[in-house]
Amino acid sequence: MSFDYFMYKGVRFSPGSYSEEILNFAENEFQVLDDDVYIVTYPKSGTNWMIEILSLLKKDGDPTWCNDVLIWLRAPWYETREGQSQIKDVLPPRVVTSHLPFHIFAKSFFKSKAKIIYVLRNPRDIIVSLYYFSKIICHYKNPASFDKFFEDFVHGNLLYGSWFDHVKGWMQMKDNSNFFYITYEELQEDCQGSVKKICNFLQKDYDAKLIESVVKHSSFHAMKNNKMSNYSLATEEFIDHSKGSFMRKGVSGDWKNHFTVAQSEHFDKVYQEKMKDLNVKFFWEET
Ligand code: PPS
């Protein structure tokens, strides 16, 4: 299938799930509800992991809903063609997902009491994860090579725009009480502690049994074996299952197996330059 990406407010989108009209609706007309919780991410940051965690919390740790209902129906991407139709069937309190950068996000959010959980991941691992994902998802262009893909990421020429802009845009919200951010790496390092932090942010009571159940049923192993969460039921129109799996490796640091020494040094320089004014040290910088 041959197609071109299009630009909306300086950001690239694929015509597979988006159009100018759909994005305009998402930005200007979509009605955020006060009890909505939004999972916002740059792609491949741990979006679906967070959907599973919030789904389990919503059902007090009972995995039945996760085992019975497709993950993208539990927390639709409100800015996509499919998501805008799926979300009509979701009863409040809703969990809603988005990859949108800050400047295109639903205007009505900023007048609401809704909450955002922003999940981040080491951008080096995002490059690797997104590279493989781009080969299996039909709405993305097939990468010409890892080197070219790396350069496109560094220059912000991929879908949803520059990772650096996405993070800097959303981190403007970091001191707001309705905004919480967490990294993929923290979830891996201490999932129990991370789920407790999420409960505190959502003002949800918890006990050891609830936390244990959420951690167990949202693990990489559990999600990989759950056909409602592992994308094996996504249609061939969306994913070419012969080329790979959505639940690929689920590890941190795989970039070390892919970057050359020159790429690693180049990325460090770009990262330092682009992130120097943010004044936030993320978990992957501390280890
Ligand atoms: S997407 O397409 O943007 O919504 O993808 P997203 O869900 O953000 O990220 C997919 C990557 O997250 C990994 N993953 C997990 N890792 C650890 N634990 C759990 N439970 C989990 N669920 C998904 C998934 O394997 C992708 O990472 P890679 O590195 O490609 O394996």
TrEMBL record:
Sulfotransferase domain boundaries: 34-278
Molecular-function annotations in GO: sulfotransferase activity
Listed GO CC annotations: cytoplasm
Main location group: cytoplasm
Name of the top EC class for this enzyme: transferase
Keywords per UniProt: Cytoplasm, Transferase
Chloroplast as UniProt keyword: no
Subcellular location: Cytoplasm
Signal peptide: none
Pfam family membership, one: Sulfotransfer_1
EC number(s) reported in the record: 2.8.2.-
Keyword Transferase annotated: yes
PANTHER family recorded: SULFOTRANSFERASE SULT
Family: Belongs to the sulfotransferase 1 family.
Name of the protein in question: Sulfotransferase
Organism: Leptobrachium leishanense (Leishan spiny toad)
